Amino acid sequence: MKRMLLILLALAICLTATAFAETTVSTVTVKGASYNSVSNSLTNTIAIQMPDGWYLFSADGTKVTGTAYDNVKRVYDAPYYTVSNKGLDGVIDADGKVIVPTEYDDVEVVSYRWAYGVVLTPSGNDQGDYYSTDNSGKKVYFNVDHYDFYYRGEKVGTLPRSGFAQNNYAYGRGDYLQLRDRDGAYHHYSKEFVDSGINESGEYVYSNRKYIHTGTGQTVWSADCTLTADEVADAYDDDHGFVIDLQGNKLFAYNYSYIGTFNNGIAYFKTNQGGFGLVDLQGNELLPGIYDSIDYSFYDAIDTGYVAVSKDGLSGLASLKGMDTSNTFRYSKEVVSEKTPFLYAKGMDGKYIVITATAGELEQHFEDVSFLGNGCPLFVGKTADGKVAVYGMNGEVILSRDNWRYTSSISISRDGSFAYEGNRGDNGYEYTLYTINYEIPEGVAAALPEGHWICSACGQERSTAFCPEDGTPKPVTASSTWVCPSCGKEVESAFCPNDGTKKPE
């Protein structure tokens, strides 16, 4: 396979430090025609303008689009790009697969599963749904002719202009699409684009003492429901002290004043005493209900094993795996910003203080910092001597280059496994792509409060003499002391210092 304009450097940089897991960084360079590039932080890809147009490249420098596009733009909050050719728009995914063909005057991504294309026609007057400006500065107006809807890259249906009030948006609720027509009525379409005929605004509606799924008309939270968790937006509910699934099965009992929506199997809860925590679908408390607040973005950060919380007016980071994060509670919630697994604030010296979930406050302070978003285990920092580097959660340098001047000199993906930079080279512009293999450090295991123990059967922390779930008794801790049978004194050594009696076997 011919690789024009591609130079494979085949470099592997191994960075190791005592107590840090090995991090490997591999690089590849792609030459582009200009300093124009677009990357989606949710993907390990980058679109680069080449001499004949825009192409999408994977992290290893492979060109994943076979034909050039006139323009490429990232889609926020979804792993897609909008693309243009000859004035018409479409959508592609991170593998270059066409989600919506470049046949439309406008395109919109509704959710990971749903998107639509818009076909316009001149309005013939001085108002319309869209407008453009001609060479003289005059506005030219257009109206929608029709909308084509796509589910997972397949065209499934078409609506006329009257069928969708675009200014009211469309919402993807799992496999089902919700929108409003120009008369204000709600519609819910299946992935086959069949309208359920239930004109309500939510995913479920309470009617005749039953909850009805607006996409299908099925009764939910009942045994005869055939919907799966993958098909709907909200697959779990609370019912009189129990969390139930779509079929009404009781997953676990709880004694909270409130429990939130489950996302990726985790929800926050509020105790009767007012504390917040996290619980999974088996009823396991991933975080005890002792916090004053939990940052709303915890869903995005869960993969790091930490979430941002506050307690007693202080911001901190809490571990989902029982690691000790007490040294992160250093500063008032009023002055700290959260980008889990990091906290940061400006210190009295005007420099940035960075607090990490595994190392607490870093000794190094920074002139400037850049955090990609919640869930990224890496950040970019600029030190007082002007050096810019990518740092890990223990404050270790993961990647640095002498030519970096700003924290924006390097861009990192949401999961921290991809980064890139662009620079003017001898023969055009060069883009260096980095694949980063970084293992999130474990941190230090938190000590149990006095009298607490871990049940060997269920793995949960207990403070009672027996586990309330399975009856396992609290383990007896062997004493390191013994009583000398000759003198009656308590002894710690192998032989009694008073009379030389040997410790009994």
What does this protein structure show overall?
1% of the residues lie in helices and 44% in strands. It contains 1 helix and 45 strands. It is globular and about 110 Å long.
Percentage of β-strand residues: 35-45%
Mean pLDDT: 89
- Trace the largest sheet across and list its strands: 1-2-41-40-39
Distance between the termini: 74 Å
Count of individual beta strands: 45
Instruction: Please work out how many helical segments DSSP would assign.
Output: 1
Rg calc: 29 Å
Oligomer: single chain
Low-confidence stretches: 1-20
Structural class determined from secondary elements: mainly beta
Anisotropy-based shape: globular
Biggest sheet statistics: 5 strands, antiparallel
Instruction: Report helical residue fraction.
Output: under 10%
Summarize the topology.
Layout: E1 6-15, E2 23-32, E3 37-39, E4 45-50, E5 53-58, E6 71-74, E7 80-85, E8 88-93, E9 98-104, E10 106-109, E11 114-122, E12 130-133, E13 139-151, E14 154-160, E15 171-173, E16 176-180, E17 186-189, E18 204-207, E19 210-213, E20 236-239, E21 242-245, E22 250-253, E23 258-259, E24 266-270, E25 276-280, E26 285-291, E27 293-294, H1 298-301, E28 306-311, E29 314-319, E30 331-332, E31 337-339, E32 342-346, E33 352-356, E34 360-361, E35 368-371, E36 379-382, E37 388-391, E38 397-400, E39 411-412, E40 418-425, E41 428-437, E42 453-454, E43 461-462, E44 482-483, E45 490-491
Antiparallel strand pairs: 1-2, 2-41, 3-4, 4-5, 6-7, 7-8, 8-9, 10-11, 11-13, 12-13, 13-14, 15-16, 16-17, 18-19, 20-21, 21-22, 23-24, 24-25, 25-26, 27-28, 28-29, 29-30, 31-32, 32-33, 33-34, 35-36, 36-37, 37-38, 39-40, 40-41, 42-43, 44-45
